[in-house]
User: Which sequence fits this backbone?
Protein backbone atom coordinates (compact mmCIF):
# COMPACT_ATOMS: atom_id res chain seq x y z
CA UNK A 1 0.00 0.00 0.00
CA UNK A 2 1.06 3.53 -0.71
CA UNK A 3 0.36 6.66 1.29
CA UNK A 4 -0.89 9.64 -0.67
CA UNK A 5 -1.33 13.27 0.17
CA UNK A 6 -3.84 15.46 -1.60
CA UNK A 7 -2.20 18.57 -3.01
CA UNK A 8 -5.40 20.51 -2.57
CA UNK A 9 -6.56 19.82 0.99
CA UNK A 10 -3.61 17.92 2.43
CA UNK A 11 -5.68 14.81 3.15
CA UNK A 12 -3.60 11.71 3.88
CA UNK A 13 -4.79 8.26 2.91
CA UNK A 14 -3.53 4.80 2.12
CA UNK A 15 -4.39 3.20 -1.22
CA UNK A 16 -3.00 0.90 -3.89
CA UNK A 17 -3.73 3.38 -6.65
CA UNK A 18 -4.56 7.05 -6.86
CA UNK A 19 -8.32 7.66 -6.84
CA UNK A 20 -9.89 9.76 -9.54
CA UNK A 21 -11.08 12.23 -6.95
CA UNK A 22 -9.82 13.06 -3.49
CA UNK A 23 -11.87 11.16 -0.85
CA UNK A 24 -11.86 14.25 1.33
CA UNK A 25 -12.30 17.35 -0.83
CA UNK A 26 -13.80 15.63 -3.89
CA UNK A 27 -11.57 17.49 -6.31
CA UNK A 28 -9.44 16.00 -9.06
CA UNK A 29 -6.25 16.83 -7.25
CA UNK A 30 -2.66 15.88 -7.68
CA UNK A 31 -1.63 13.27 -5.15
CA UNK A 32 1.85 13.00 -3.76
CA UNK A 33 3.44 9.74 -2.74
CA UNK A 34 4.44 10.32 0.88
CA UNK A 35 5.14 6.69 1.71
CA UNK A 36 8.07 6.13 3.98
CA UNK A 37 10.36 3.56 2.43
CA UNK A 38 12.67 3.41 5.41
CA UNK A 39 11.38 0.73 7.81
CA UNK A 40 14.03 1.58 10.39
CA UNK A 41 12.63 5.06 10.98
CA UNK A 42 9.63 3.63 12.86
CA UNK A 43 7.02 5.94 11.38
CA UNK A 44 3.42 4.92 10.74
CA UNK A 45 3.79 4.20 7.02
CA UNK A 46 4.07 7.72 5.69
CA UNK A 47 7.06 10.00 5.99
CA UNK A 48 6.31 13.03 8.20
CA UNK A 49 9.06 14.98 6.45
CA UNK A 50 7.41 14.47 3.07
CA UNK A 51 3.99 15.27 4.50
CA UNK A 52 5.30 18.54 5.92
CA UNK A 53 6.55 19.67 2.53
CA UNK A 54 4.22 21.87 0.58
CA UNK A 55 5.28 20.19 -2.64
CA UNK A 56 6.89 16.81 -1.95
CA UNK A 57 7.91 16.48 -5.59
CA UNK A 58 10.61 19.06 -4.95
CA UNK A 59 13.21 17.22 -2.94
ZN1 LIG B 1 -8.26 16.70 -1.21
Assistant:
Amino acid sequence: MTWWKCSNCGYLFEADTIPEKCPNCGEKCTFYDVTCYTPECGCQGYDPKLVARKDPRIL
Summary: The CA atoms of residues 4 and 52 lie 13 Å apart. The chain has one domain: 2-52.
